[in-house]
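Subject: for your reference before the review

Hello V.,

The reviewers asked for a structural picture of the protein, and I figured it would be easier to keep everything in one thread rather than splitting it across files. Below is the amino acid sequence we used in the manuscript, unchanged from the supplementary table.
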Amino acid sequence: MISVEDWAEIRRLHRAEGMPIKAIVRHLGVARNTVRAALASDAPPAYRRASRGSLVDAVEPEVRKLLRVDAKMPATVIAERIGWEHSLTILKDRVRQIRPEYAGVDPADRLVHEPGQAAQMDLWFPEPRIPVGFGQAAMLPVLVMTLTFSRFLSAVMLPSRQAGDLLAGMWQLIGQVGAVSKTLVWDREAAIGGKGKVTQAAAAFAGTLATRIVLAPPRDPEFKGMTERNNQFLETSFLPGRAFASPADFNTQLTGWLPRANARTVRSLGGRPIDFLGRDTAAMTVLPPHPPTTGLQTRVRLGRDYYVRLDGNDYSVDPRMIGRLVDVTATLTRVIVVCDGTAVADHERSWATGAVVTDPGHVMTAKGLRSQFSAAKRDREHQRHLTSLQAPQQRVMFRDTSDYDALFGVDFDPTTGEVL
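And here is what came back from the structure prediction:
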């Protein structure tokens, strides 16, 4: 077989130098037919080893029959059905090669993203455990939002995956952009649409913002692949070499890094996300005058220990509210307790679990109330004692037994005591 170098030299001598075939044969010392073949071929010579066949060739018709019945039949089941006794690897390779002929083809069209149409949402879980106080550290979720037209990226770390926290995170990121996309694309996150239907809390959030939440089909990562790639971008470009002292420190560092991320040139966009953001927000829906309901919320009757439990932590409340209904709301950073429109507790939210957060003022108030209660109790007991001493003594009347005898008509012998 002629080498690529000889093939190239033959063509050069004949076409560029005008050398005839006989001269090329003498010059290179090759056969005349080799020269003719090289001049007739437009592609360089390539070595192709003849196939020696495979053990699978004999059973391929049986494999095709099974795939025709069930295109998703595993190769291990096929091997069992056809009595395959050789290497499973070569059978799997052949099944992988011919299965698309029976499973069908599902092409993915390249999407054209219009300004203001969609924002993709996803949760990213950075591997480092973040110190959350009280000697604890946790792997916390980061909500990542990507505007599909401008590729503008924003993100924030959240204390949990509960619906209230996810909605609070979305509202924070949307508020930073200043407008809301026509649709918010989510996968089937449990708090958003784990059963294939948007949850009531998420639907109320979308209704307040006049937008729509779209859930990705199951097992279709390409549906929101843009923000999936941004998760990987955060993993490889933001995270390496960083250390975080707290969730607040993580969000501070992330906030400082995001402007640089949005100023990079995106090849598919042909520019920088920050330069396309204006066109994106101009086509979005304006934000409502009143914010949507977000955060964790509950209503309880305050017990004697004057603490309320929320997300696994206890927070003190003004003990003067004991016995009354109080409304507890947790934002991403604060826990606020309200009774009859008045705030009776305001704490920094703990991202740990099993923590007890106490306001020293509440402890002092409780101590004063206990002192007042004890003094009042002593006063009541002393007053009852004085009242008992000042009450007039009642005389007890005693009757002679003969009066009862005369009343019932009974007469006794005075000497023997017998009844007469």
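For the response letter, the relevant points are probably these. The longest strand covers residues 118-124. The chain has a mean pLDDT of 89.

Happy to draft the paragraph if you're swamped.

O.
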